[in-house]
Amino acid sequence: MNLKLAPIVSIAIMLVAAAPVRANPGASASGDVTVSSPCILVSADATQPTSDHIDYGTLQFSQAYAGGEKTSTGHPQFENCSSDFEKVFIRGTDATSTEVTPTGPAARWSLAGEGLNSYGHHVNGTFNGFELTLVDQLYSPSVSSGAGVPLTSTFTMPLVGSDGAGQTMTFSIVFTASL
Amino acid sequence: MKRSLAALVAALVLGAPSAVLGESSGTVPAQVEVAAPCITIDAPGSVDYGTLAFSTDPNSPRIKRGSPDLGFNNCGVGDEHVFVNGMDARDTFPTPDPPTAVWSLVGGSTCPQLNQYRINVSQPTTTGTGIVLSNELQELEVLGAGAADQQSTDLFMPCSGSDGAGKTMGFFITLTATF
């Protein structure tokens, strides 16, 4: 790899060194360019603009049989506030209890689908749909400038026997945009 | 890899803006309340069996239905499994003081053995044994969210010659709810 890199570096240095020689001091033209920067706006609930979080309500733990899942849906939305097309990625986070003990949150759930101390979080919309993970997943490769994209998020409770009964668990959906 | 290296070198030499590599992100907080099992017992929260004599005939024990019936409610948000258990009776109940009379809670006959008593739990409107209380949890029923129920409790007196004559014997009947 070092061998392949060497010619490129050499050429680049030569270009820089040669530049003053080739410049004409008596004739110049200025130019500028504004570089687009990615921009994304998110809202917790497209149906309730004043809401600052998705509220999945009060749910029981899921049961370990077919149809025993306890789920709730939300309606987050994002908007491309840049002047260009954007790629949008989405990921989730683990959930933690708002109750704190000397050793940390009173309960923790992993974002890994329905299980013991493990919950599921799914997003679905016009462009795509998938189970959230802790790693960014491409939701759309080209969201147009100014476009608002509503989503449906579906939360699935951990299995009965998990920690956190009677507590409030918090977590997030993270949207990332790049050009 | 080659393209990445070339782009990196070109960016260094030509001073390309780093904004093209930038990102924008937004986070939507979410939360869920985890339901906890909930059960309440109707006032007055105690059952009175009056004043009773010891049983004398093993084939015909002295039995008294408590008053009032045991009323309870599912104060949770989903179906609950309701379990019931009893305990041995003591003359110093509910204090922790050492008792001078103790009756063991049994599931069979209370005579001719001494210092044994029994409690049956059943629907007020039905005939039959229902559940014979023990110190261990036994499932009584599945109760829907917000639903209420009542159960009658029948006390079988210990056999004549047992301890506790002239004293008030006390015990708990405990209801436990789970999902």
Q: How big is the Rg of chain A? A: 24 Å
Report the end-to-end length of chain A measured between terminal Cα atoms.
29 Å
CATH topology of the domain at 57-178 in chain B: Immunoglobulin-like
What ranges of chain B have pLDDT less than 50 throughout 5 or more consecutive residues? 1-21
The CATH architecture classification of the domain at 42-51 and 68-178 in chain A is: Sandwich
Radius of gyration of chain B: 31 Å
The gist of it:
Chain A has 179 residues and is mainly beta. Chain A is 12% helix and 41% strand.
Word description of this protein:
- The complex is a heterodimer of chains A (179) and B (179).
- Chain A is mainly beta.
- Chain A has one helix at 2-22, and strands at 40-43, 54-59, 71-74, 77-80, 86-92, 95-97, 100-101, 104-105, 108-111, 118-125, 129-131, 137-143, 148-156, 168-178.
- Chain A has a domain at 42-51 and 68-178: Immunoglobulin-like (Sandwich), CATH 2.60.40.
- The model of chain A is unreliable at 1-23 (pLDDT under 50).
- Chain B is mainly β.
- Chain B has a domain at 57-178: Immunoglobulin-like.
- At the A-B interface, helix 1, strand 1, strand 2 and strand 14 of A face helix 1 and strand 1 of B.
